[in-house]
Amino acid sequence: MMSRVDQVAALRSRYQDDLAHGPARFFQPRRTDCPWCGAARLKVRLTTRDLLQGKPGRFVLEQCQDCRHVFQNPQLNAEGLEFYYRDFYDGLGEENLAALFRGHDARYPLRAEAVLPHAEPETWLDVGTGQGHFCDAARAVLPHTVFDGLDISAGVETAQQRGWVRRGYRGGFVELAGELAAQYDVVSMFHYLEHSTDPEAELIAAHRALRPGGHLLIEVPDPQCRFGRLLGRWWLPWLQPQHLHFIPVGNLRERLTELGFTVVAEEHAEPHDPVDLLAAAWLALSSVAPRKDEPWYAEAPGRASRVLRATVLAAGVPLLVLGWLLDRLIKPGARRRPGFSNAYRVLARRDDRPR
């Protein structure tokens, strides 16, 4: 198996070719209106860079002053999405992603349980399933439910090979919705919709894939979370450049109703992930510390840079510990008080045809 050093060296020439003319070609023209409601009153909410991978580029989030929708503007085009997703969920990033999914194992059954008061599904499609970790864990809660997964990455094929899903569909949900029409009792989108270039088209696809009376389960970052304003670009759920849309819960409820759904449950406390301050501390330290070797940099860092990075990160351990402790102290408050949860969950039933 090729070492990481050799992998980086092999990938460097491709990345340098991609960046030879700068990252501007990765973006669509800037919009002058809101993609959610069409209003023209936009205001910059945040300007940042790629804090996780460190790939070059400057990213702007704007907010509609009418409906409060937050979106990346200008938005990445297809070439840009390929560039910034590359080696994040697979390739160089696959091992880190697998560790992240394992760290959320305890949360997966809770997501499945959110449906139980309303339905006992026979078939479930998890959209944006990755390698199928949720589907594998959810069987403990729903042993008689058959799970399928859908994703644009090769991970969904791995999920099928492991038997974590009955069938793994590789491709875009909007394009595959006709093939999947009226097949499922539940369609889930866990931290998927914010990655979509067109969230409304995804909701319409979900309506199409569901049987009448079926349920759509959505979990997304909450742009109304107070930590988003307090921590600014260090708030992890902004996750630029991958997160393209941030939908206030009121907007989502209204649009689901227009599309023929009835919202039957809304949760803010349960989806909260107590990582805001720990993640902010890590992102800030990583920004200060010299970079590690990655193929999108023209050359590997020297020994002095590596030593300096290790020194800065080691010195920051108390800050990380403090962030971890504060996150856990704040978690009960996030459960009791609105505005502190960093995510929300909505369950909606398909009742009518889309209007």
TrEMBL record:
Record-linked Gene3D superfamilies = Vaccinia Virus protein VP39
Instruction: Return one GO MF term.
Output: methyltransferase activity
Q: Does the keyword Zinc-finger apply?
A: no
Q: Which domain of life is it from?
A: Bacteria
Segments passing through the bilayer: 307-326
- Gene Ontology biological-process annotations: methylation
Which key words tag this protein in UniProt?
Answer: Membrane, Methyltransferase, S-adenosyl-L-methionine, Transferase, Transmembrane, Transmembrane helix
The record's listing under CDD domains reads: AdoMet_MTases
Q: Name one Pfam family in it.
A: Methyltransf_23
The name under which this protein is listed is Class I SAM-dependent methyltransferase
Q: Which organism is it from?
A: Streptomyces auratus AGR0001
